[in-house]
């Protein structure tokens, strides 16, 4: 980890907010839709997730009980646009079974954050990033989501060495931002937006709002 890596995340949030404005992410009508999206977005673009969720909505199955009532093959076909549809169909069914067995969203909201996180991580197919997506965006818990965009940006800005583990990097951000779910939500959403606009694998440095604080600005080298 580089010197000063534990500071500057709020400043980064403010810089990105000035550049892009509020993101209002995650785009969903219900917490369950967020959960479904968190599973479907694994290894695919968001546009593909939207197509799969639209299929579920048209079929009237965007609820745990109705989704579980679908035959496995039919569910897989509905979410085909998201890719790896057979695997994701199984993961969705495991998540829905967990929700139903736990007493639904209302019961889960009563659980402390760390207890709920552990329970989510015990669900087959739910890893740390997906669990934190669900905690932050569906349940409004103050956790930070670490993804490839985050690692790429933080490394290029010199905030991390690049070999930090998921939990280490998550807590690094949470310790500075604090128990502020709205700020953690915006920071993650803005990082994703910025990474797609400028901090790509091959960066687009021209016009980057972080160019003044990025050691590699203007190099245009792949990450």
From TrEMBL:
A Pfam family of this chain: HhH-GPD
GO molecular function, one term: endonuclease activity
Protein name: Endonuclease III domain-containing protein
Organism: Sedimenticola thiotaurini
One Gene Ontology biological process: base-excision repair
Keywords from the named record: 4Fe-4S, Endonuclease, Hydrolase, Iron, Iron-sulfur, Metal-binding, Nuclease
Residue ranges occupied by any HhH-GPD domain in the UniProt entry: 40-197
Keyword Phosphoprotein annotated: no
Entry annotated with the keyword Iron-sulfur: yes
Domain of life: Bacteria
